[in-house]
TrEMBL record:
Domain NAD-dependent epimerase/dehydratase span(s) in chain numbering: 209-301
Name of the protein: Uncharacterized protein
Family statement drawn from the similarity comment of this UniProt entry: Belongs to the NAD(P)-dependent epimerase/dehydratase family.
Domain of life of the source: Eukaryota
Xref: Pfam families: Epimerase, GDP_Man_Dehyd
Domain NAD(P)-binding: 6-108
Amino acid sequence: MRGRPLPIHGDGSNVRSYLYCEDVAEAFEVILHKGEVGHAYNIGTKKERRVIDVARDICKLFSVDPEKSIKFVENRPFNDQRYFLDDQKLKNLGWSERTTWEEGLKKTMDWYMGNPDWWGDVAGALLPHPRMLMMPGGTERHFNGADISSSGQTPFSSAGDTQMVVPRFQEQHFPRKPSLKFLIYGRTGWIGGLLGKLCEKQAGVTGRPNVDWCESHKIETIRANVAGTLTLADVCREHRLLLMNFATGCIFEYDAGHPEGSGIGFKEEDKPNFTGSFYSKTKAMVEELLKEYDNVCTLRVRMPISSDFNNPRNFITKISRYSKVVNIPNSMTVLDELLPISIEMAKRNLRGIWNFTDPGVVSHNEILKMFKNYMDPVGPQYKGP
C-alpha cells in the first residue's frame, strides 16, 4: 500500500490455515456453551493456502503488481511446511466456518484501512528477519557467509538470490508516556464500580436509585442528570480534561423511519425521540447540550449486562425476577466486553457521541430463554409470558 516490498520466506510454498476472526470468536462461544470441561478443541479449516498465494491475493486487493511487490528472502529457521489441525471435533458441536477467504480478507483490509488510529504503525511486520547477528569487529554476517559493515545497507534479495538479508539494528528511543489519572464520578455505582476495578486510585459517588425514583424526584433528577453533568463538563473543559460521559440509549423508540424488525438502527447523529420517562427526557436534554462541548465523549449505554449475576442492577438478573416482561428487541451493552474499550477510548482522547452497545438486538424473552437454557439446562425450559 505504501510502496514497500512484501517479503516472502523461502519460495512461499508453505501452507497455512486461515480463518476470519469472527469465525474464531464464534468457535469460542460454541466451545463455551457446548464443549466439555477438560477437553481440547482444534479451531481450524481444511482450506489451506500457500503463503505465496496469500501474498498475491493481498497485492490484488491493493491493486499492486505482485511480481514487483513480492520479494523472496532466505527462509526463516524451523519454518514448517504446514500446521494442519483437524477441527472435526469442534464441528461435531455445531460450529462451522462461515466466512469465505475472499470475504474475510476484504473485511480485514477494510477494517485496517478504516481504523488507522486503532492499530498504529505495523510496518515492522515487513522486516523478514528482525533479529540481527552482530559479529566481532562490527560486521553483520549473512547466512550465506557474506559480511557487510555495520553501517552498510543491503536491499531485499530477489527470487534468484537466496542470500538472507539481516536488517541493521537501529536503537529507537520512545518518549515515556505520562501516567493517566481517572476520576470516576459514580465510583460506588454499578458501572462506575466495574470501571473502578479496571483502574486504580479512584474517587467518586454513586447515582440515584433507579428510573422510577426520577418520576417522583424531578428536581433532584435535573440536578444530577442535567446540572451535575454540565458542571462536570464545564469544569473539565476549564482544566483541559476529557470527560467520558456514560449516558443512556434509552432516549429512542421505534418510529416510521426505524420500524421494529427492519434492522434500521438509530445512529449517533440522530436526535432523541423518546420522552416517555422523566429520566429519558433529562438524558436527551443534556445530550443535546453536551454537543457544544469539545471535551466530552458520550457513550450511549443500553440495558447493561455483566457476568456478575449476583448484582441486582445486572439487566439479566433484574428481568429474571420480573413476573412479566416486554417482548421488544433492544440493543444491549455487555460491560465485560465494552468497559475496557471505554478506557482505551479515553487514552486515545476520543470525543463526540458513540452508540456503546454490542451489535444487533435481542428481546427480553430471548434473553430469559438463553439464561434458562445456559444456567439450568436440565430444568423446564422458559416459554415466555
